[in-house]
Write a structure and sequence with these properties.
Layout lengths: L13 E2 L17 H14 L3 E2 H8 L3 H13 L3 E4 L16 E4 L1 H13 L8 E2 H10 L9 H7 L6 H14 L3 E5 L5 H8 L5 E6 L1 E4 L2 E4 L28 E4 L3 E4 L19 E2 L2 H4 L4 E4 L9 H6 L2 H6 L1 E5 L5 E5 L3 E6 L3 H4 L2 H6 L2 E5 L4 H14 L3 E2 L1 H14 L6 H17 L4 E2 L1 H11 L11
Parallel strand pairs: 1-7, 5-8, 6-16, 6-17, 9-12, 11-13, 13-16, 18-19
Antiparallel strand pairs: 2-4, 3-4, 7-10, 8-9, 14-15
């Protein structure tokens, strides 16, 4: 399937499915007309005296839909019309457009609409349109190969062991358990899994479901790769529905701050915009639950939340009005922990995790290469004697070659060098000082007073 003409794409990613076509009628939006009218009213409240082109850009729909809506709102005496004058300060291109503002009754209606739902943005897509799009963008429909994973893990030391394991795991679409000692690179690798996926996906700004507008597009988690969504003028032949954004597959990571509220449709304390849960934001991408076992709720409570979605690939969401909807659960889920899996999850849950991938310390050659490359990046000269001392310290204190250590210890070494105002060389002495500052006495097997 080809992307529409004039679609400007970077990163080399190709949309997995055909672009959503531009809707040309109110009925084609497949959501209640009252919802769209409320959005127009709220936009006019926030942006008084907007013209048709501005409203079309705000709402992501074609101009004649806006014109039809404004005509209806004028009949209800909710909107007033302002003709442009010859002294207009507006741009020449917009002088010919009349401008619209709310009447007193219209402003009252807008206030009521804002109290019910503060969302202001493009018209939401229907739940059916969302579900259909998510299912069609299932990453399992576009299998990755060894070169894809090798490229994704190009900056990961020890990747040669992980590539043949992670490749089949990603293609399976099943949940992953990444476990091992802290500092073995679980989170680092999890963040790069997405780089192996060579297709892009369409994400809606918002979804309308059972009387609620749910904001899905997240500036934090979705990275647009096309400027088509930001065009002011829409071409029916060359552009797609501006209620969708073409993005890299989402990569959502959350750790010890995760709460159960984040897994349900919810809103912040400061406004009443209903936000999609993390798994809905991560659909067609990856959701990483980092530091499993460090969350405020019991692990069993968190894991039980995922049993049905992982087994059947759909999820039930409770909405603010008490209704419940079903959405696809089409994503790669990765749990990362440095705890013993047998102690934090029961056998029934572990069975549903298709792949359990243990992360181990690096082998000596990879470890020393990492030290050498990072010291060069930091502009430091790493003396051969310092490397010999490093290996002796590992042997003496029985500490593995964890990939987090070079970056952390070199950082401390750099701080020491700057403070002492000496040559940027890591000597055995500086390395020993940095090591002692990094590890506690008990970690090194020493007695603590």
């Amino acid at each position: 399937m080809q992307a529409p003409k004039e679609l400007e794409i970077d990163t080399g990613l190709t949309p997995q499915v055909s672009a959503p076509q531009i809707v040309t009628s109110i009925d084609g939006l497949d959501i209640p007309m009252a919802v769209v009218e409320n959005l127009v009213i709220k936009h006019l409240s926030a942006h008084p005296k907007s013209d048709v082109l501005e409203l079309a850009r705000y709402l992501g729909v074609v101009t004649h839909i806006i014109e039809d809506l404004l005509a209806d709102l004028r009949k209800k005496a909710l909107v007033e019309v302002f003709q442009p004058s010859s002294q207009s300060i507006f741009k020449e291109s917009t002088k010919s457009h009349v401008r619209y503002a709310l009447s007193e009754q219209g402003q009252s209606n807008a206030d009521t609409a804002f109290k019910k739902d503060a969302y202001i943005g493009p018209v939401p897509v229907s739940l059916k349109a969302y579900n259909d799009m998510v299912e069609s963008q299932d990453l399992r429909a576009n299998l990755i190969t060894r070169p894809d994973v090798e490229c994704a893990l190009g900056d990961v030391y020890g990747a040669q062991r992980l590539v043949p394991i992670l490749g089949p795991a990603i293609n399976s679409g099943r949940a992953l358990l990444l476990y091992g000692h802290a500092g073995t690179g679980k989170s680092f690798v999890a963040a790069r899994i997405l780089n192996s996926l060579n297709t892009s996906v369409y994400v809606p700004y918002a979804v309308y479901a059972a009387g609620n507008i749910i904001k899905v597009f997240s500036e934090q988690h979705h990275k647009p790769i096309s400027n088509d969504y930001d065009r002011e003028v829409i071409s029916l032949k060359s552009h797609y529905d501006k209620r969708w954004v073409l993005c890299q597959r989402p990569n959502v990571q959350v750790g010890g701050e995760l709460t159960m509220d984040m897994l349900e449709v919810n809103h912040s304390e400061h406004n009443r915009i209903w936000i999609a849960p993390l798994q809905m934001i991560a659909n067609n991408g990856i959701l990483v639950i980092d530091d499993l076992g460090r969350q405020p709720m019991p692990v069993a409570t968190l894991l039980n939340r995922w049993i049905v979605p992982m087994e059947y690939n759909y999820d039930y969401l409770s909405l603010p009005n008490g209704q419940q909807i079903t959405i696809p659960f089409v994503l790669t889920m990765a749990f990362s922990t440095n705890l013993n899996p047998q102690k934090i999850a029961d056998p029934a849950f572990l069975r549903r995790l298709g792949y359990k991938i243990q992360f181990q310390p690096l082998v000596e050659n990879d470890y020393l290469s990492l030290w050498s490359d990072l010291s060069e990046d930091k502009g430091l000269v790493l003396q051969t004697s310092a490397l010999e001392s490093l290996l002796n310290l590992h042997s003496l204190h029985k500490i593995g070659y964890f990939p987090c250590l070079p970056k952390d210890i070199l950082g401390i070494s750099h701080d020491i060098i700057q403070f002492e105002q000496i040559e940027p060389e890591v000597t055995s002495t500086i390395l020993q000082r940095a090591w002692d500052l990094y590890f506690t006495a008990d970690e090194q097997g020493e007695s603590v007073l």
